[in-house]
Amino acid sequence: MVQITYIEPSGNAVTVNVAEGRSLMQGATAKGVNGILAECGGSCACGTCHCYVEAARLPDLPEPTDAELAMLDTVAAERRPNSRLSCQIKATAALEGLVVALPDRQI
User: In sequence order, which residues have a C-beta less than 8 Å from that of residue 50 and are 6 or more positions away?
Assistant: First the structure.
């Protein structure tokens, strides 16, 4: 299990243990974290699992695919340099303690 902290739009921090290999979106939705809609169920087709990864930890993540980058162009909240889709980030030991903030809106 990998501990991930989600900062909900309200500012509330929720720490969740996510099984290795599961996406950050799956970990959040399984525990009822507020701020991720995940309308497409994780297929990189809706942009409603947009999150902001703490900038210092971006090198710990795999590079976004072209499909993810294209979908990030459609997100409802401000796209930032640290924007990612949580459905495309798999929990690994290297991500232990990662903090992701959720935007104020997904649609």
Answer: 72, 75, 76, 77, 83, 84, 85, 86, 102, 103, 106
d(CA 22, CA 36): 15
Query: What is the 3 state secondary structure string of 61-101?
Result: CCCCCHHHHHHHCCCCCCCCCCEEEHHHCECCHHHCCEEEE
Distances (CA, A) of 38 to 27, 28, 43, 60: 11, 10, 9, 23
- pLDDT digit string (tens) for 44-97? 999 999 999 999 999 999 999 999 999 999 999 999 999 999 999 999 999 999
The CA distance from 16 to 88, in Å, is 17
Structural contact between residues 53 and 98, judged by C-beta atoms closer than 8 angstroms: yes
In angstroms, the CA 91 to CA 77 distance is 24
**Residue 50: strand pairing partners:** 85
Task: Say what the pTM is.
Answer: 0.95
